[in-house]
């Protein structure tokens, strides 16, 4: 059984959750996907552990998808040609097949290799977020934070990955600057 997820922000949509497998703790860069153990933690946290194997092939595919997503998220409204090509390369390894089952219509995801499933699902989720509203895909406003989130606030004003962490640090910094004048 995988250990507990050490990341400061979990529960975002799958594509952003994959991006958030890299984060900072103080000045230290952290990366959950340094090996298959961390991959197992992420798969469990993302609800994919029953469908995906935490092996080297899956890890390579997931890292490829994370890099493609990182390039695409820099400008969700207009990703660069390179970012689109990288994401399309991940998506080229799978498809959605629509079927009529005894329970009614359903979608089945098929990938050319089982190890590509988690990566493909994350890339596909990013397309879903773009269709929903690309302006809600945000990077945390704290200058030292590298995390991303999907802003579901009613007024679209969420700025921080977490108010308890980054938002509070920013407020404390502003307060300290005011009192030092």
Structure notes:
With 181 residues, this protein is of the alpha+beta class. The protein has a domain at 14-130. Helices cover 43% and strands 17% of the residues. It is built from six helices and six strands, in the order H-E-E-H-H-H-E-E-H-E-E-H. The strands form three sheets. A two-stranded antiparallel ribbon has the order 1-2. A two-stranded antiparallel sheet has the order 3-4. Strands 5-6 form a two-stranded antiparallel ribbon. The longest helix has 18 residues, at 56-73. It is globular. 29% of the residues are buried. The mean pLDDT is 92.
Please tell me what the overall shape is.
globular
| Span between termini | 53 Å
List the total number of helices.
6
What percent strand? 15-25%
User: For the CA atoms, what is the radius of gyration?
Assistant: 18 Å
The beta-strand count equals: 6
Provide the succession of SSEs: HEEHHHEEHEEH
Percent of residues in helices comes to 40-55%
Low-pLDDT parts are: none
Major sheet description: 2 strands, antiparallel
Averaged pLDDT: 92
- The strand line-up of the biggest sheet is 1-2
Which structural class is indicated by helix and strand composition? alpha+beta
């Amino acid at each position: 059984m995988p250990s507990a997820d050490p990341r400061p922000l979990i529960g975002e949509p799958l594509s952003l959750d994959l991006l958030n497998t890299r984060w900072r703790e103080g000045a230290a860069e952290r990366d959950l996907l340094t090996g298959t153990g961390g991959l197992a933690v992420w798969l469990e946290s993302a609800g994919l552990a029953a469908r995906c194997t935490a092996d080297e092939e899956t890890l390579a595919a997931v890292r490829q998808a994370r890099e493609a997503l990182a390039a695409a998220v820099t400008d969700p409204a207009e990703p660069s040609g390179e970012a689109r090509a990288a994401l399309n390369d991940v998506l080229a390894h799978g498809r959605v097949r629509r079927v009529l089952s005894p329970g009614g219509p359903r979608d089945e995801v098929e990938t050319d290799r089982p190890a590509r499933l988690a990566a493909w699902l994350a890339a596909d989720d990013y397309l879903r977020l773009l269709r929903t509203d690309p302006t809600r895909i945000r990077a945390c406003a704290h200058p030292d934070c590298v995390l991303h989130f999907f802003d579901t606030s009613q007024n679209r004003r969420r700025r921080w990955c977490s108010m308890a962490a980054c938002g509070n640090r920013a407020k404390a910094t502003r307060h300290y600057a005011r009192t030092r004048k």
